[in-house]
Structure formats: structure tokens, C-alpha cells
Amino acid sequence: MTLQLILNIFLCILLTTRVLGQLSVYDIPPGSPGFQHGNSSQAVQFDSHSLFIDGRRIFLFGGEFHPWRLPVPQLWSDILQKMKAANFNAVSIYVHWGLVEGKSGELNWEYHRSLEEFYKVAQRVGIFVIARPGPYINAETTGGGLPGWLTNIADVARTNQTGYVNAWQSYIKDFAQMTSRYQYPNGPVIAVQSENEFYVSGDEDPTSTEYMVLLEKALRENGIDKVPITANDVYPSGNFAKGLGEVDLYGFDSYPNGFDCAHPPQWSELANYYISGHQNSAPWAPVFFPEFQGGALDGWQGVGYDGCEQLTGPEFANVFYKNNVASGSTAMSFYMIYGGTNWGNILYPGVYTSYDYGSAIREDRLLSPKYDEVKLQGMFYHASPQLLTSSILASGQSQTYTSNSGVFTSVLGLPEGPTKFYVVRQNSNNVTTPTSFLLNIDSSVGQLTIPQLGGHITLAGRESKILVTDYAFGSNFLQYSTAEVLTHTTIDSIDYVVLYVLPGQSFEASFGSTSINNVNLSGSPSVQAKVLNGSVVLFGTLSSSTTALVRFGNTAVLVVDKFTATSIWNPRTIPSFDLSPDTPSILVKGPYVVRNATIIGSTLELVGDTNRTTSILVVAPSTVRSVHWNGSPVSMTKSNLGIGLTGTIPGPVPSLSLPNLKSLKWRTADSLPEVAMGFDDSQWVVANKTEVARSQKPFYGKVVLFADEYGFHSGSFIFRGSFTGGKSSAVQLSLQGGSYFGYSAFINGHFLGSNQGFNGSDIVNATYSFLQGTLNNGRNVLTIVMDSNGLDTDWNANDAFKNPRGIRGYQLIGGSGDFDSWKLTGNLGGEDFPDKVRGPLNEGGFWAERSGAVLPGFDDSKWALGSPFVGIPKAGVQVYRTSFALDIPLGTDASLGFQFTRAPTSNYRSLLFVNGWQFGKFISNFGPQTVFPIPEGVLNHHGMNEIALTLWSLDSSGAKIADLKLVPLGVLSSGKEVVTDAMVSPIYQDLRGPSN
Ligand SMILES: *[C@@H]1O[C@H](CO)[C@@H](O)[C@H](O)[C@H]1NC(C)=O
Ligand SMILES: *[C@@H]1O[C@H](CO)[C@@H](O)[C@H](O)[C@H]1NC(C)=O
């Protein structure tokens, strides 16, 4: 994703001219596309309300996760289980062409690129997959997922031009053939997206439409024939909804709160074009958001992801996601649910190493407060199948609905049925103070103003509630509730329903119960019950940590405050994709996360995590007599609530023993030997091209010095240009490395200067004068070391990703001479990179990388002792190595990270390699990232770790690392899958030969 804000704002203005109206039912035009409900040969179908799986309606509650941004396949189940535990039933994935096909024609689908492995994990966890192979994905990754070698062809990407169409054939064929075997019901895949945010189409550009036609045809012909092909439009303008290139299921993305992570309290108003946009583009399909804002991205010089997490925090999720439901949506996927890491060189210039994205699940796999909010909503949406056929009956701020015109109400329901959903929120997102009101409802017992017993309903500033009337659960029903429903389930013929409000708020809930004689209250004195007009009415004002149970007839109502609600889990006890309320489930209150629940005989096997010693409450069938937590028996007693069992489960180990990096032995070597006159570059590539096919041409100079033209697409590059004679006075250069790139130039070993590209200036023009005595009359060598922050993306489908990386222009000034020859290098082997596990983008062209010094197993015993905390006294690149052992106790999920301390006076760039994986790019004067989480499996938690750190001083005054620590970011006692992936990464001897 990424939205161009200007475009977005323009569209908001354009589209908001159609104000949320009084729609009654959707206007479904005849002859709409395939996969409609009623075509019984397909397991995945839809109509204007919702998707169907196996003929049954589902609420599609999805989140985006890029498996390749967590290159440890054994951790994928951790993310998917955490999603499933929050009642997500779908994961959306981008597939990265550039990572899969590092060299044209050589595809590698193994390790972190393994789709089959991912589909198997998803199948095991029981979560649907929406696969999005691009070929263009954007995704804030280099080239937007297009491979580096594609920059060298003339034909324009994302059109039907032959060179481009030929280029993606193998990739899409492999993708489709592999994915076809995992289409539901043979696997978890329920949809495949063609292209991404592709808005150049229709009459404006027939070549784009032809391309989309070819792409969909290739997907179909290679086996994607059982699930809908979808499109993700950038806004609801109907691209590929109908006509040539039309997809089966149309959707559009939305990032309504923008990306200003520096000002988290500044919210946008709610977008109100979704309904009209949907009506105008694909009214036969559900309102489907293939991407809805799940966080925000941050770039170099940004404020860091804490700000993004706040901007898009639990209140944002509460108000904006419920507004999607109020707009009729039953299908949405949040981008991102887990962001992960731009390890290696998979970033594009607009982002840094962390791709945390302020997501519900943080980069270090810990849960953010937003996770709690989406979990509460996920539980409710699946518990409420009535939502799936509801239409918008009415909406507005009129006092028809509430006593307060500051409250906006959307009424959803079935025109013929009794159930209604009142989505209430503040009229403006600017209001951050509480608002109270009475709600006028139209229920099966007539028109009522609630609460009936006095008091009011409260919205706490930025809060939205979905309040139900005539809401069935099990064999019972709620007449109304001013508390929100969390979920309901039937256990041993007792219908449990869980209600919640924020602490300090009051509630009133009326039940259509016929068994009113026997009301039992337990747990909390703040909840009371009375019989009013033949109905059991519960009411009260909740404090924090309220858990009250009220029983009457075969109904059990659990009333909790919202924070207690977040500790309730509702795992299904049979393996299933199905999260509907009639799939057998239990209730567990307390743990950090509950991943799994299985009943074997009379034992309930719970698998999950804790962050402290935790008392749990388990409500399970009475056949359950004992409870195991992560395989160990828990001593359980009857709960004093009168239902369920309670016990105590252990927390994590109190502390971890981690090495002090400053006191380790470090060894060091020069990582820029190329500046020396006598450096042997005989194996380097000769720059001999004088023309390029792409439209971006060299500015000046005879030979082409674009790294990608010579097969180098990743990280840093080094150029050596030779010229003869000492007459020139200066060299003029245009260097292009993308925003925030850096370079240093040297003549015959003498430092000329360094500079960096800033935001919006990815080209730096410089003229360096040769100081007296630095030139030879014979051969002179100009050495330029530069890095790139990846290729640009191609948002506008205008080949911007072909913007060169390297030297765009060069010339000697004075003396009328020219360079005799140029040589260059990038990552070892270029497109024939040796490391097929870590893939084409892990390494760049620094000596430390080419020589294999960054790999585990490299013999540094002959290097000098020296630490990065001492650093270097001059411009140049130095590499440091150290090693340490970790012995994290089994059953502990320790999230560990490297924390840099910025030395403000030092102008340096560092790459951090952990066991050969580049997992950190630190730019001292851009920041903002200082903490680099390293996933277990890259970091070996049960053995040796080898660390390599480069230190590139851009200034002649030198640089050092002020401090670097290995820090715990979170420690859990965990039932997650055991990780042994650290063992499969190749070492020096596998990749570079027997010894160095
Ligand atoms: C691309 O599409 C355009 C518009 O339909 C068509 O004129 C052109 O022949 C197509 N090019 C190729 C190579 O198929
Ligand atoms: C909310 O605040 C913004 C910024 O101050 C302002 O532009 C906007 O008009 C306000 N919206 C409402 C509905 O008051």
C-alpha cells in the first residue's frame, strides 16, 4: 500500500459530495459477475451483503502479514495463532516477485519464500488466506516488488508491452500452480488478488486494461479457478469492477487517518464516501476493503513507530472499524496486522529497517493495545450472523435516534426481521470529551427510550459502540443492551453471553427471558437485576476489574468492564476455520493469549502465553475435569462465580542472562580497501555499456554507471574509475541512490568528500577539486562507495522504479582528459548470488559483505582487536565482529533487540548482521530507529551467535558507536512453536569455500 495523500484528500473532497443517505436496500443490478451465491459449484461465493464459504455467510475479518518480512517460517504460526485468537479468520499476504526471482528465469520458492509452507501453516492454524502476488505490490519494498533486473528492459512495467508481459510469466505461472493446490476446500486460499492499487485503466489507457486481462487469464489458466480473483482499487472508482479486465470480487483500500505519526491526536473526520463509492462501483459485491488502515508507515527522519501506533491506536480502531460496519462492510483486512522487518535490502527509500507499521501485533511479535480492540470487535462480528444480512436502515445525527445531536447513529437491520444494530459515535472526531445520550429504539416490544431505569449511555470521547436490539444468542435473546456484546456461546445447554462497557460507564440490558423467577447474581455488587414488564433487566455502573455473573433460566450473562473483556478468549475446541457461534467453544479469562484449546477425554489442553503469574477462569463443558496449560496440569477449583473453574498458571522466567556487548572481545578490519591505489579489482565488472533501454538516461559521461545495468540490485555499490595524467583540476559527479542514500568519494586514497540524499532529493550533484599532490602523472583512481535505500516504487505505473542507482553522470574538469575505464561491484555474484537461503537482497557490495566477513563461520582470528565503541578516526568503512552464546530457557518467548545509542556528533551509517542476516540499517543523523528487534531463528536463542557490524564514517573526523546493547523487548512464558530455524542458515564455508 501507500497512499498519496494529496490524491486521497482530493478524492475525499470529490466523493464526500454524496452524503450518507437513507438507503434501504442495495440496488443489485442484473447480470453482475461470477462467484455469486447460488452458483453451487464454488465453495467461495458472495452476494451484495457478504462472502459465503460452503454456502454459509462469513464476516471476513482479515489482516495483512508478509511472511517474507519475518524470514523465520517457524514463527509464522505464532503470528497466525495470535490472529486467530483475536478472531481473525483471514490473513492477506503479498508475494514478493523480486525476492523469488533474483535472476530472470531462476525462481526460488524455498525458505521464507515458500508459499506452500505458509499455506500449510495457515491450514493447520485454521485461517483463510488471501494471496496477492502482484506482480506489482508496492508494499514499501524495493521496486514495489518488481525485480531489479526488470529496470533494464525498455518496455513499460504494468502495461501489456511484450517485454514486461514475458518477464512475469514464470513467476505468475509458478505462483498460480502452487496456489491452485491450496484453493479452498483443498487448502486455506479463498481469494487471489490481481495486481494492486492499479488505477490507470479503462478508456484512459487500454494497455493497462489489456495487461490486467492477460494477468487474470494467466492466473486462471494456471489453476486459479475455484476462488474469486479480486482487485484492490486505490479508491472506490470502479477500476476493473466491470467491463474489460473485470475481476470477480471488487474491493478498494482506505487509509482515512493518514500518516502523520508526529501528531497522533490529530484525526481526520470519518470518510463518508464508502457507501456511495460502493454503490457506484460494484453494488453486487459486499463492501470489501482488501486493505483498511491498520497502522501507518514511518520513514527516515520520522518520529518512530510509537507515534504511528498512537495515531492508529485502539480508539482509532474502535471508531473507524465500526464505521466500516456502519457503512455496510462485512469484509475488511487491516494493513498491517503484523508489519515485520525490512531486513537485508528489501526496503524502498521511504522506509527504514523496521516495518512495525504501528500494527496490532508489533514487529517484536508482542501485542499492542490495538490488538485488544480488534479482538473485541472480531469476537462480536463472528458472534453476530444477523449483521451479515443487515442493510443500512437509517443514519444521521437526528434526534429521531438519540437525545443528543452530537451523536451520529447508523441503524442496521433486516427490513423484515427484528434484530437491529445501532452504531453510535460522536458526530465529529474532534470531540475528545465524553457525551451522554438516550437512544430511541424500535424493538419487538415497541418503541422504547433506553436506558429505561434512568441514567444514560455514554461515549468516552473518541468512542463508538454497536448496540443491539432483539439479538438472539443460543435459544435466548437480548431485547436490548446499552453495553456492547463481546460474544456468546452455548456450553452444556447454558447460553452464555458476555457484555462490556468501559470502567466508569453504566449499562442496562433487558432479556426476553421467560424464566424470571430465579435470578442469581455473583461476582460483583455493582451489577443488579430486576424484573421490568416481564423482562429480566440488568443494570449497574462498572468499576475496573468487574466480573459479574447473572444466571436465570438457561442464560448466563457475564458482565465485565472493557479491560477485563480484553482478557477473555473464546477458542474453538474443534479444528475449524469456522468462527460462527455454533462451533463448539469455551471461555478462558486471564492469559496473555490463548492459542489453542482441545478437549481430550476429560482433560482440557490449553496452549498459550503469559506475561506474569496469572489466575485463570475456564468455562468449559462439565465433562472437563482437569486442565493442562502448555502440557502441564493446573490445579483447578470451582470458581466462586458459581460457574467454571479457576486456577493459577505460571508467568515467565523473572530475568534473562544477556551478554554485555561492550565487554565482549571485538575484532576489526578495514572494509574499504578499495580506495587504495593498488587494490586488485581485476575480478570486478567492467562498465562497458554506452546505452540503456530504460527511459532514464545518463546525464553525461561516456559509459553507463547504473549498478542495475550490471546485475547489482541490492544495498551498496563501489565504483572505481581510472584516468591518466595529473592535469585535471576536479571531477564533477551526479550520484543517484534514492532519498537518504549516502556516498563517499576518494582520489588515490585521499578523501574527497561525502554527502547524503535527503527527502525528495535522490540525486546529489557534486564537484570535487583535486588538492595539490593528490594526482599522479600516471594512473589515477577515483573510488566511490555509495549505498541505496532500494529502488523507488511504481505507484503511478510510469516506470519510476527504473530510476537509476549509481552514477548518473561524471566528467573530469580541466585538462581535457576523460576516464580510461570504470569498474564496479555490488553484492558478491550480482544476480548469481551464492546465498540461496537468505536470498538476493540480503547482501550489498561492501568488502565485509563480499568477503563473507559478515557470515557466521568466518575466521577473524587474524584480525586486530578493536571495538566499534572506539571507532575510526577518519572517513571510511570499518567492520567489527564478535560472538556470544545465548541460553534462553525452553518455553520462553524472549523478544530481543539491539539498541543503538545515537552519538549526535557522529555522521555514520551502520549495518548490523546477525548470523549473516542483515537486520539493521542505522543512519546516525537520520534515525529515528535505534532499536532493532531480531527474530528468534535469526538470533540463535540456544547457542552461539556471530555478529558483524559495519561502521561507515562519512566525515573525515571519524565515527564511533556510542553504545550498543542487546535488550529484552518482552519476555513471555509461551506455548508457541519451537524454533530451530537458526540451524538452516548457511555459513561462510557453505557460501565462500573451506576457509578464508
Ligand atoms: C496492448 O494493448 C493495446 C490496446 O488494446 C493494443 O493496441 C496493443 O496491440 C497491445 N499490445 C500488445 C503487445 O499486445
Ligand atoms: C475538526 O478540526 C479541524 C482542525 O482544527 C477542522 O478543520 C475541522 O473543521 C473540525 N471539524 C469539525 C466537524 O468541527
Q: What do these coordinates show?
A:
This protein is mostly beta strands and 996 residues long. It has four domains: 32-367, Glycosidases (TIM Barrel); 386-591, 3-layer Sandwich (beta-galactosidase, domain 2); 661-670 and 846-991, Sandwich (Jelly Rolls), CATH 2.60.120.260; 673-829, Galactose-binding domain-like (Jelly Rolls), CATH 2.60.120.260. The protein contains 13 helices and 56 strands. An eight-stranded parallel beta sheet has the order 9-8-7-6-5-4-11-10. Helix 2 packs parallel to helix 4 (115-125), helix 5 (162-180) packs parallel to helix 6 (206-221) and helix 9 runs parallel beside helix 10 (369-383). Bound molecules: 2-acetamido-2-deoxy-beta-D-glucopyranose (2 copies). One 2-acetamido-2-deoxy-beta-D-glucopyranose binds at residues 160-162, 206-207, 210.
Short description:
This protein has about 1000 residues and is mainly beta. The protein is about 15% helix and about 35% strand.
Keywords:
Jelly Rolls, eight-stranded antiparallel β-sheet, binds 2-acetamido-2-deoxy-beta-D-glucopyranose, 4 domains, eight-stranded parallel β-sheet, beta-galactosidase, domain 2, TIM Barrel, globular, disordered N terminus, 996 residues, mainly beta
